[in-house]
Design a protein that fits this description.
Layout (H helix, E strand, L loop, with lengths): L1 H17 L3 H14 L4 H13 L3 H13 L7 H14 L3 H12 L7 H20 L4 H14 L4 H17 L3 H12 L3 H12 L2
Length: about 200
């Protein structure tokens, strides 16, 4: 019953936190999950232990379980963590892409460094897809570059804005491209107007 589960959870916490016996703590949490597959505290504890042990395949499995039982409105933090494990630790960018997209479009999207990192990985994925002839990737690439630019400052922001301008121009969205180039160059749009109009016919 619930009381027995609480005792098992307490034992698992003691094994990990007080005794530092991660292997036994893993076994204890697994025993809990065998009886109660949706035991959130054990899933979260295992995720932390596996991360400390660099056990990335096991961490992926646990995060997939956690994400599957998490309401969509609260899925952002788990989706971004899973996506980053897939792309950075398991080198599976293709599998990471839908999770990173889910995280950034959720009601609780990542912020700060986690958001910037997720966007950079998605930009790489969209650029690869575009190079392989996926026309739909162009729209997503423009979105991701715009989001990333808003997270950056200084030269890095200008460079990202310029890259966004190139993508918008490829989409024939010349007015939006002009605005992106103008922000990148710290100039008023009118100053670039003649150059951009001439470039439209290229």
């Amino acid at each position: 019953g619930p009381q027995k589960n609480q005792m098992l959870e307490r034992r698992a916490q003691l094994l990990d936190g007080v005794l530092g016996d991660q292997a036994s703590a893993i076994d204890a949490h697994k025993a809990i999950l065998e009886k109660t597959p949706n035991a959130l505290s054990s899933l979260d504890a295992l995720a932390d232990i596996y991360a400390k042990r660099d056990a990335w395949a096991e961490l992926k499995d646990i995060l997939e379980q956690r994400l599957a039982i998490t309401p969509p409105d609260e899925a952002g933090p788990y989706a971004v963590r899973l996506g980053l494990v897939l792309v950075e630790r398991l080198e599976d960018a293709e599998a990471a892409r839908p999770h990173l997209e889910q995280a950034l479009q959720s009601k609780k999207p990542p912020t700060g460094e986690a958001k910037s990192t997720a966007l950079r990985h998605l930009i790489g994925a969209y650029q690869k897809a575009r190079a392989q002839g996926d026309e739909g990737a162009l729209e997503k690439l423009a979105w991701a570059l715009g989001e990333l630019a808003s997270q950056l400052a200084g030269k890095e922001r200008s460079a990202t804005r310029a890259e966004l301008g190139d993508v918008l121009r490829a989409q024939k969205k010349y007015r939006e491209a002009l605005q992106a180039f103008a922000v990148a160059a710290h100039l008023e749009p009118e100053i670039l107007l003649v150059d951009e109009v001439l470039a439209v016919g290229d």
